[in-house]
Amino acid sequence: FFVRDTRRVIQEAAKKHCFACSKMGATITCWKTGCERSFHLPCAPQGECVTQFFGLYRSFCWEHRPRQAVQAHPGQNNTCSICLETVEDKTSFKTMVCPACQDARFHRHCIQRLALHAGVCFRCPCCQNQEPFLMEMLTMGIRISKRLPPSWESDPAVEALDQRQSRCDTATCLCPGGRKHTEEEGPWELLLCSSCAAEGTHRHCSSLESSTSSWECKGC
């Protein structure tokens, strides 16, 4: 019976197209009753979909996904508390806020990366709140690992995530002052990877124009 049921599910999924990439084989359908949007799990970020990795493991399309009721305190710097790069001045799929202190803002990909490294020690990087913060992040689709202790305590090769990268990691650094030399603007301004914030580059070392505001490392 289980085999037949599995085959039926696979056959039905093969007929559904992903609204994000338009290809067939979308196995995930929005949990909202009456919504027929389907998508592939890897396409979820592209389509701004949310999958909750707890309880019933519900998935939602961009229209019906849960949204944070709390908004960040006005007047705060619009920077991610993890990578220190700019974030939106309001909550969205890509920009999230701590429900406890309402001061900590972060990119979704930054808080997801922190959750995987922190494991059971996952908490707000600013106020250190854990219980309301943890439940909010789970509801908003952040996947949390069960690792213990955190990666930065068990693996000396992994930098603590609360330390800002401060060197140029290009294969050949062209800066006369060396990889750790940085300036506030100009060719020796240091840009961090907009996805992982774990690697950096001088503008000149990666041939970036002065108008370029973001950069991604090769790993991302």
UniProtKB/TrEMBL annotation:
UniProt source species: Tyrannus savana (Fork-tailed flycatcher)
PANTHER family in the cross-refs: PHD FINGER PROTEIN, PHD FINGER PROTEIN 7
GO molecular function: zinc ion binding
Short name of any one Pfam family annotated for the protein: PHD_G2E3
Listed name of the protein: PHF7 protein
Domain RING-type span(s) in chain numbering: 80-128
Keyword Cell membrane assigned: no
Domain PHD-type residue range list: 1-65
Record's keyword annotation contains Magnesium: no
Source taxonomy: Eukaryota, Metazoa, Chordata, Craniata, Vertebrata
GO CC annotations, alphabetized: nucleus
InterPro entries the UniProt entry points to: EPHD, PHD-type_Zinc_Finger, PHD_PHF7/G2E3-like, Znf_FYVE_PHD, Znf_RING, Znf_RING/FYVE/PHD
Annotated keywords: Metal-binding, Zinc, Zinc-finger
